[in-house]
Amino acid sequence: MRILFTGGGGAATSALWALLKDQHEVYFADADAEAKPANVPMARWLHIDRADQPTFLETLLYRCEQYRIDVLVPGVDEELLRIADARTLFGCHVLLPSSWFIQCHRDKFVSMQGLMSMGIPCPQTALLGHWNGYAPRVVASWPCIVKPRRGRGSRDIKECGSMDEARALESLYPEQLIVQEYLHGQEYTVTCVADQQMNLRAVVPVKVGLKRGVTLRAETDHDEAVTALCVAIHQADPFSGIVNVQCIKAADGTVKPFEINPRISTTTCLAMAAGVDVLGLALSEGLALSDGLAPFRKVSLRRSWATEMVG
Question: What CATH code is carried by the domain that includes residue 165?
Fold first, then answer.
């Protein structure tokens, strides 16, 4: 297959190239022409416009046609909804859930409220400050996590010890903030894969060891409680494609999601390295389903930075 990943300047690109280059014709696109990882050949590196530019779809459609792409895998939050809404214009598979699913879960407040209404235990989450005349009820105890309602990549996430400290952040961010119950325990980031008929085919929990915006140290973990949570989320809110669930497992064994990312994550490459055919399962039509979810191996991730000297 000819596969195009957007967000090519991200932390997973080097691993994706190494894992897929011998199986498929793989390309990576990014709005930053200088962000190419050292191991990706220039012939497989494409420039596109930013998602907030009017010409974004035009340049992405052109690249897909130019290189006869079979599968488009978007990886940047700001572009997801634009691509999903225009998916019929692309002459290839677009590995994204529905526009409705993306719209709901890109909004962290709507996402948590929606999951709770479906019976999924979630951290208490509220809007910070007045919004359109609505004064929300805030969480009951501090410290709490304060973050942008539509943020991404662990950006601008703050731990606040009081409401006054949280409200002091409001003037710093143009976008509305949410305040969320602080969850204590082990963090997991989970790759969930569903086929084109919305059958859940794989759940790969990754136990996070070290995180600095992106996950730097982690390992796949056959955790039944985390897997059960992701199965329950899919049953309550079915999707197709590849979705990332971030959750915390407490000392008492309870697991709560704190974020749903309707796209691949930087740890999707770890699921691939563990033996899961993530792309093949996501593109399948639900035929010849095997019993249970796809098996995976125990694999560890040790991510470090590469320095490239040019000139």
Answer: 3.30.1490
48: amino acid identity, one letter? I
- Ranges of residues in the chain with a pLDDT under 70 are 129-140, 153-154, 174, 287-291
Q: Return the structure tokens found at 109.
A: 């407040």
Exposure class string for 175-200: b at 16+ Cβ within 10 A, else e: ebbbbbbbbeebbbbbbbbbbeeebb
* Listed residue (214, 125, 140, 142) closest to 176, CA to CA: 125
Q: At what angle do helices 77-85 and 56-66 cross, to 10 degrees?
A: 70
Angle at which helices 77-85 and 99-106 cross, to 10°: 160
Supply 82's token pair: 């634009």
CA atoms of 116 and 122, how far apart (whole Å) = 6
Question: Into how many domains does the chain fold?
Answer: 3
- Which residue range forms the structural domain that includes residue 57? 2-96
CA 199 to chain centre: 19
Strand order in the sheet with 186-194: 255-261, 241-249, 186-194, 200-212, 214-220, 300-302
Q: Are strands 45-47 and 71-73 parallel, antiparallel or unpaired?
A: unpaired
Residue 306: name the closest of 40, 26, 19, 20 by CA. Answer: 40
- What is the number of residues in the chain? 311
Same domain, residue pair 242 and 215: yes
pLDDT, tens digit, for every residue of 163-220?
788 878 877 776 788 889 999 999 999 999 999 999 999 999 999 999 887 899 999 9
pTM of the entire predicted model: 0.92
Report yes or no: 251 and 263 within 8 Å, Cβ to Cβ.
no
Please indicate, yes or no, if residue 11 is contained in any of the structural domains: yes
Structure tokens, 112: 């948590």
> Cα–Cα distance between 160 and 91 in angstroms, integer?
47
